[in-house]
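// run 5 | inverse folding | seed 20
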């Protein structure tokens, strides 16, 4: 067996790990020990697994690796936001972003290479190449961030990676099974141990999958709304033609586990002259009636060749005031990492960029 053909155990779920060990004839408690080393301790080397017999460690090392997706490039913004371009085993690439804040740090995780949704204002939507990420490739993004931030073991206090948002490249509800499998590992108290309350899944509105998301993963839900009328949303988020506003809001009304303490976030990108009027703010309030909601106003982040402009500060402030006056929290999201194209909607992996425009590779992380 060549080195390259070894399988990585990092990213496997409990059942898969147990199955691999059963192939080796190992006893079931070995799987629990390995789980601890992989997901609690973040081991990258079998040799470090001191609770396992040396012979067993050697057997494992001969057959498996603990590799994460490899880092093709890493960049740090002036504001501390970090972006990693990951190269997957088949050569495709995705991006993961870490956004440090005063009281928390959020990792923005990708669920697909590219995206099929073609939202008009989103850079990722212009990337034609698309495939689903496997569960291990999704978990691998979290593990790699922990490696880079030096945050093992999982029980470490005062960490920089406290929250996860499934808001990177791709539509997570088009890759539900792998996203769910990955989040189970991330949420496992003996695994990466990030609580479902600290995880938010953002969807453009794949209505039939919303109930399953609540029932089977139970994470916080964010909806990329962006418009209050179907004719406008049909253009901005073409998925709206399939699942129009009324159906989407009905699914939100029924989202399992939502409550005033756990509100659904409605993301609304502010586009000049397209969706930024006071009348639309009032309509938004009307639409959200009866849903435990908060609104996140996202100033449009430009990208090369984008067909829109960001709304003016005055328009955004007026919009926010109207929504806020109706009793909803309506913060304006500060763009982060714009200088390294790491802000919302700016991710587009080098899979389809020319080599010349590749991100610079710094010497070290
Ligand atoms: N497909 C999912 C996950 C992507 S999340 C979804 O649509 O929710 C990415 C978030 O950034 C979405 O709310 C998206 O609408 C928003 N976004 C996309 N392009 C943007 C841009 N150029 N400026 C600001 N926000 C953008």
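// decoded
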């Amino acid at each position: 067996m060549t080195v390259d053909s070894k399988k990585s155990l990092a990213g496997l779920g409990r059942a898969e790990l147990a199955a691999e060990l059963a192939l080796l004839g190992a006893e079931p408690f070995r799987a629990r020990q390995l789980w601890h080393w992989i997901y609690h301790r973040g081991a990258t080397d079998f040799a470090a697994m001191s609770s396992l017999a040396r012979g067993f460690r050697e057997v494992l090392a001969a057959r498996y690796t603990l590799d994460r997706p490899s880092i093709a490039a890493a960049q740090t913004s002036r504001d501390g936001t970090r972006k990693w371009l990951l190269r997957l085993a088949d050569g495709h690439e995705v991006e993961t972003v870490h956004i440090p804040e005063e009281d928390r740090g959020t990792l923005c995780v990708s669920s697909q290479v590219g995206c099929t949704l073609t939202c008009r204002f989103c850079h990722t939507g212009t990337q034609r190449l698309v495939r689903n990420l496997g569960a291990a490739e999704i978990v691998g993004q979290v593990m790699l961030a922990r490696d880079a931030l030096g945050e093992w073991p999982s029980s470490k206090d005062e960490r920089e990676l406290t929250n996860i948002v499934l808001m990177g490249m791709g539509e997570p509800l088009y890759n539900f099974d792998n996203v769910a499998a990955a989040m189970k590992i991330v949420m496992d108290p003996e695994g990466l141990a990030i609580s479902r309350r600290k995880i938010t899944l953002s969807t453009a509105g794949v209505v039939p999958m919303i109930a399953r998301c609540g029932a089977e993963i139970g994470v916080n839900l964010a909806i990329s709304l962006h418009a209050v009328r179907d004719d406008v949303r049909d253009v901005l988020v073409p998925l709206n033609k399939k699942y129009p506003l009324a159906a989407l809001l009905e699914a939100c009304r029924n989202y399992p586990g939502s409550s005033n303490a756990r509100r659904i976030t409605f993301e609304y990108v502010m586009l000049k002259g397209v969706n930024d009027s006071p009348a639309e703010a009032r309509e938004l309030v009307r639409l959200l009636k009866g849903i435990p909601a908060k609104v996140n106003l996202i100033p449009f982040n430009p990208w090369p060749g984008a067909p829109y402009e960001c709304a003016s500060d005055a328009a955004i402030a007026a919009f926010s005031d109207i929504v806020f006056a109706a009793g909803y929290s309506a913060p304006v999201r500060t763009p982060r990492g714009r200088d390294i194209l790491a802000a919302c909607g700016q991710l587009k992996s080098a899979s389809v960029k020319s080599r010349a425009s590749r991100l610079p590779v710094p010497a070290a992380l």
